[in-house]
Each structure stands twice: as C-alpha cells, then as structure tokens.
Design a protein that fits this description.
It contains 18 helices and 16 strands. By secondary structure, it is an alpha/beta fold.
Length: 503
C-alpha cells in the first residue's frame, strides 16, 4: 500500500465541511452558507418521512457490508473525529484487513465518511452504497467525487470508484444478487480537479461573515428543490405560469422571459395542449369549465353498484416476502366504499395486523370488498392495479378473479382531467387539489395522517417495529383508518359531483 500522509489525518476542531454541506454548496454557495451557519433553521428540520428514508438508507448500508465481507468497521457512536480518523488510519495500514467500513478522512477543511474501502490490486476501491435501484449520475457521482477528493488529498491510493445500489431484479428469498456494483471510475476521476478547487472555495465561503449574494434561478431546483426557496424567491402570483398543466421549468422560464408571468398573460398565439388550453380558458373566465357531452359518455363507464377502492402500501427496500423485489409496493391497508344504484353507500376496510406476508389476507379483503360491484374505480388507477396484480401473484387460487378486477378498474382521474377544469386545481389533478375545488365540504385538514408517504412510513413502523408501545400503535392505526376511509369517501363525493356536473 502506498504511504498515507500523516498530516492529512490531523483532527481539525474547526472543520466545517462535510459531504452533505459540500453537496449543498455545489448547488449554491448561499445555500451552503446558511446550511453551515443556520443549522437549526426550520427549513432544515427533517420530516418523519425524511428521517425514515435516512434510517432505511443506513439499514441498506449495513447490509451491503455483508456483500464485501471480512472488513473492519470503524464504529462511529459518539466518538470524536480524531479517534475515528486514527482508527481508520490504523486499519488502512494493516495488510490483513481486506476492507474498511465507514472510515473517516479529513483534508482541505472537509471531513467525509466512506461506506466501503475494499483492498484491491494497486490500492483501494472506494464503494458508495445507495438505497436506490439505479445509478443516478447527477446525484451519486458528485457524492462519491467529494469523498474521492478528500481521500486523494489524504494520500489514499484509490484506483477504482464504484456505486453499489440495490438490484430491482433481485427476488426474495434469493438475496445473493441484492446489490449491483457499477464502476464509475472514469466519471469520478474527471471531476476531481474542479471539485478540489470548489472545496477550497467553499471553505472561503463559509468563513465569510455573511452569505454570498446569489441570484435565484434554475439552479434552485437542481438536483432537488433548495430548502431555502421561501427566503430567496418572492411569493408567486396566483396562476403563475409554473402552475400551467405539465409545463416544464424551461418552458415556464421562457414564458417569464417574454414577460408572461401568469396564465392570464399567455396570449392565444401560445399553443397549449387541450388540457392546458382548458386551464387557460378557465383561469381567464374565472370559472369552472365542464365538457358536458364527453363527461356524460365517460361517466357511463361508472355503472352502479360501484366499489371505490384505495390502498396504502409498504415498500421495503430489502424484500422480505417470496417473489418480492426491492421497493415492491405491497398493500397492507384498504378502504372501499360501495355505492348502490339508489346512491346509498357502505364502507369496508382492512388493515393488516400481523407480521408475516400480508398478501393472502389482502386477496381475501379485496375480493370481499368488490363482491357484487359492477364497476371498481380508483383515483390514479395504475397504482391500485399494480397492487392487486402483486397480491394476485401471491394468491394463485384467487389470481384470475383479482386480475379481472385489476384489468377492469375505471380510473376517475382521467374522467376529471379530460372533462373538467376548475381554476383552483392550479394545474394538478391530484385528489388533494381536485377535491377542495369540487367538493369544498370534504377536507383532509385536521387529520394526523393526511398524505400517502407518511401513511407508508407509519404502516412500515406498525409492521416491523415489534417493540412499539400499544398506545402509539393504536393511535397510528386509528389515524391510518381515518385517512384511508376519507380517500374513498372522497371518491364517492367526487362521483356524485361529476354526475351533477353532467346534468
Ligand atoms: S433558493 Fe436558490 S439562491 Fe436561494 S439559497 Fe437556495 S439555491 Fe441558493
């Protein structure tokens, strides 16, 4: 192994840059400055979903170590950076150690922690583990390049860079192919000189008493929306061109450059899709537009009795039931309102309470709920169809019936999208936007769980956190049941409203 420069491992109490902050600085130096100097900012507080994703990423990272076995783990705990740097240095120097996990390195005022360093011919392979199912050049390469820069300055001879991510093709119970390793050496090496200069510049930025002046622009949304948008961007006027249906950022920018800030400003000469054109008409007229004739035809597909169905799912990164791949969405909760020809409605629901494979129970719950219905609907049916088909795979005795339900689902979303536009939709046809505009009495306000991602995190906790206390478990279950029930009750109300509009 080539000599590692000792001075590179000197602990610097004032080191302020970490991988996360350098990456923030690559987006914008003003964001970097705030992220370092205003660490407690409200905008940086992590949501329940973000915290869960971090935990999930750590679990995947820990499991990945088993696929590069025989290494030495530098346990972080609450130890000082100096201790972690020293242990890493000692591990690298021991020829018997074939890999170092979670090693610490510090140089140029930046400290990084590497996932895996594997000893290979001529030096080390730096492996960054990602809990995604594919390589993202825009996100993963800068991430590994920051570490690579610091290691290069530390004198660690890295001869290969790899991203190790989950393999979507892997199927439980055979997890031998759970990870894919992609060699990104050329892409990473090409970035190092520029990135090293950038890190040096970033240390100057954070040493300044004030944030640098940066004009907000397209960079604020790349690769992700900056958490400080509200500080830099003035509030946008109602019906801003960015709310035009399916407008991309480049197109919206070109409208603004022409002086067209809101949808009102867009002249007729600007050609739009049929839906966006309907939106422009609705905004200009200040009222809802309904395409009566075609709406009547579309509603003919919703023959009563109709079962309005909605699922909530878990999607484990590491598959745990036969035939499942990473991130397969598996339903563990269902709500269904059945509306009879006379308009009366009944409700059925199911929330999985066990710890094993939920799909056999899901199969029975779906069939019970839909029995007798002439139509089954969902809002954005693609999702429910996928859920039912995955359940069918695990319940072969009911597969034909389940697949017939999935194939026949009528989607309410395109019925709204193709025939109705209300100015309050603001360019979106999600139920959360459509419902308050069309059925203002129904609201998700006041619910403890009011959107799908939070529901998924809480369902995952119910399923896998065995030591959760009973009171919390009951509260989460109640909140989930209320949320899912409202989703299908909303569909009942929406169906009724559409029928009224078609009169
Ligand atoms: S909103 Fe834009 S300009 Fe403001 S800190 Fe974020 S990236 Fe920088």
């Amino acid at each position: 192994m080539a000599a590692v420069r000792a001075d590179s491992y000197v602990s610097r109490a004032m080191t302020m840059l970490f991988k996360k902050t350098v990456l923030a600085g690559l987006q914008c130096h003003k964001r970097l400055w705030w992220q370092v100097h205003d660490r407690g900012a409200e905008e940086l507080r992590e949501s329940l979903v973000a915290q869960y994703r971090l935990r999930e990423g750590s679990e995947v990272g820990r499991l990945a170590l088993e696929y590069v076995p025989g290494g030495h783990l530098v346990e972080r705990g609450d130890r000082s950076t100096a201790a972690l740097l020293a242990e890493t240095r000692a591990a690298l120097a021991m020829p018997a150690i074939s890999a170092v996990y979670e090693g610490a390195f510090s140089a140029m005022g930046a400290t990084v922690y590497t996932d895996i360093l594997e000893r290979v011919d001529g030096g080390w392979a730096l492996i960054e583990v990602k809990a995604t199912t594919s390589l993202s050049k825009t996100e993963h390469l800068p991430d590994i390049a920051v570490q690579a820069c610091v290691l290069r300055r530390c004198g660690v001879p890295v001869v290969r860079y790899e991203v190790m991510h989950l393999n979507r093709e892997c199927q439980f119970p055979d997890l031998s192919t759970l990870f894919v390793r992609e060699d990104v050496t050329a892409d990473v090496a090409a970035r190092l000189d520029d990135l090293e200069r950038e890190i040096v510049e970033q240390t100057r930025v954070i040493a300044a008493p004030e944030p640098p002046p940066v004009t907000p622009g397209a960079h604020c949304a790349k690769p992700h929306e900056c958490p400080f948008m509200a500080r830099c961007w003035p509030p946008r006027p109602e019906h801003h061109v960015t709310t035009l249906y399916r407008v991309g950022p480049t197109k919206a920018e070109s409208y603004v450059a022409n002086g067209w800030h809101t949808i009102h400003d867009l002249p007729d000469s600007v050609k739009l899709s049929a839906i966006a054109a309907r939106q422009r008409r609705a905004v200009r007229q200040g009222e809802m537009i309904v395409e009566h004739e075609s709406l009547v035809d579309a509603l003919a597909l919703v023959d009563r009795p109709v079962a309005h169905i909605d699922f909530e799912t878990v999607a484990p990164a590491i598959p745990c039931w036969p035939g499942c791949h990473p991130y397969d969405q598996i339903p563990v909760q269902m709500s269904c309102h059945v509306v009879q020809a006379d308009g009366s409605a009944t409700h059925r629901e199911w929330l999985y309470d066990g710890h094993g494979d939920p799909r056999p129970e899901a199969a029975r719950a779906i069939l019970d709920a839909c029995r007798g219905a002439r139509t089954v609907t969902a809002y954005y049916a693609q999702f429910e169809q996928g859920c039912i088909k995955r359940v069918a795979l695990a319940a072969p005795e009911h597969a034909a019936e389940l697949n017939a339900i999935a194939d026949g689902i009528v989607d309410l979303l395109p019925i709204v999208r193709e025939h109705v536009y209300h100015p309050a939709f603001a360019g979106s046809f999600s139920l959360k936007k459509v419902l308050p505009a069309l059925v203002p009495d129904l609201t998700y306000a006041g619910l403890d769980i009011a959107e799908g991602e939070t529901a998924q995190v809480q369902l995952t906790r119910l399923l896998f956190e065995r030591d959760m206390d009973e009171k919390e478990r009951r509260e989460i279950r109640d909140a989930l049941l209320r949320y899912c029930q409202l989703d299908t009750w909303a569909m009942v109300a929406l169906e009724n409203r559409l029928r009224d509009l078609a009169q």
